[in-house]
Fold DUF6598 domain-containing protein.
Amino acid sequence: MSTASIEDDDHQAVSDDEEEDEDLEKYQPFTVDDFPRVSSEFDEQSDDVFQNPDIQLRGPSAMFLFQTFNDPLIEKHKHFFGSQYQLYDESEVNVNNNVRAIDCSHGCHCVPSGVLQFIDLKIAGYRHVQPRCANIFGFFAVRENAEPLRNYVYRRGINNYEAVNVKRDTGIAHLSLTSPARCIHMRSRVLFEFKLSVRTDDQPEDGPKDDILIEGCTEFTEFMNMYKAGPFIETRRLYGEKCGLDMKFLVLRNAVQAKVDVEILRAPVDGLNLNLYAKTSGFRDVICLFSGVTESGCRMSSVVGVMRYSYLILCISLYFSGCQLQAFHLVSNSKVFVFVPLLINQ
């Protein structure tokens, strides 16, 4: 091989490395400085989100952000999803009424279907300029088309805000999903409806005020991932004017909704610190069902989606009087998921 050829090959190799470094630098995740900020106007979402190639390369797959049903500039009967999901009805789904306990230990009596199980919810690209935590409140709810009532995945009032740490560079902050109805029946499509705000106390004499971060709605359908035949994890992002909203959830087929009931029979006077986690259907992602302090007589219910011929793992962590206790419970059956009431006793 000639010297010229070797030099050309070396030059080509260096050029390739430089191009790869440029690509890596170019397609880094968005920061608060370059995060796309888009209104929920149809044209802006179409052009600034779905015509922008960086969107798909520097963050989760984007979803279309539609205007909120209560937008005063929109006639209610003309809203894209108003009649389909009865957005005029803000009633909440009752978990105890909708999820009926069935004993399948001697044979399956459940009717499996598709379910959507939420794992994580977080804001992204939020420029938080205050030195302390951001006080987030509002709601995120899911409606299914068969019974289009609100399944609250996240719900906090202005006086029950959540203080979250916001990463200064990416503007990301995780929200705690403590609602019991994070598993939603899904025939083919569901609607995400939300309004998240940050509480401001700049002028205490005027009382707390709210600054809307992101609000609106969007629809998720199974046809968005037709190439995925089995169960899968989906991570999606919505782009708003002040921040984005990231959603992570499981889409399970041939599954049932398992209800986990927890009762605290006895607890110390100062309360019992309880953490309850779950893993479902062979996925490694941890689902936080509850995390906080409870007391004697406290009862709580959570709903988790589980595929048939699979299993559910529950992890219970208790902290009291300087001691820690952990227990794992695997619920499974060779034929079908088995409902088991769970009692925690100090």
Q: What stands out?
A: The chain has two domains: 42-101+113-253, 256-344. Confidence is low (pLDDT under 50) at residues 1-20, 333-346.
